Amino acid sequence: xxxxxxxxxxxxxxxxxxxxxxxxxxxxxxxxxxxxxxxxxxxxxxxxxxxxxxxxxxxxxxxxxxxxxxxxxxxxxxxxxxxxxxxxxxxxxxxxxxxxxxxxxxxxxxxxxxxxxxxxxxxxxxxxxxxxxxxxxxxxxxxxxxxxxxxxxxxxxxxxxxxxxxxxxxxxxxxxxxxxxxxxxxxxxxxxxxxxxxxxxxxxxxxxxxxxxxxxxxxxxxxxxxxxxxxxxxxxxxx
Length: 239
Known about the structure:
By secondary structure, the chain is mainly beta.
């Protein structure tokens, strides 16, 4: 019975759901850099242009940042191209309340919508002039190269850590940090995937625990040596 319930949950998680997709920016993808998840240079950080901005219904106040989705264009023979794409959620598509949801307000609640990079949009459509197409989507595991990255920012009394390149579920929903002279300290989400504490850990080696929405946790011990500097990036373990 337990195995049946587990299989049912897995099947439900992998089931296709309906949404719509558009694109923003041009083929260079310059407009997709940065964004509400706080990642910054998506090319440098390994996300590339295989990304999307999510509507309110999918963004979950930023907790979906880093999650991976498989998309396919459906039910529009004029514009749909065969095949699927896999993207990472890296940005937020805000609502446009000045326009109706079916005419320009594509990301208005409660619509489920993916605003793709132009490159990704052209992979599921015959031509970018399609503008907007119906899609099906489902969550898939994130496949990343190397370990989780921790970019250390802030100042001596305020530690801000951007966590990225997260495999598995991809979407971090809890983080803890431990200095070489402290116990584990729960971090608060500042915005996107930037996590913070108001404590001075300068001069201590740093360890991190990263938990994702599927309940899994990975611990990276002594990732940053005691002489770490603000602005540096360190690589930990991976899911």
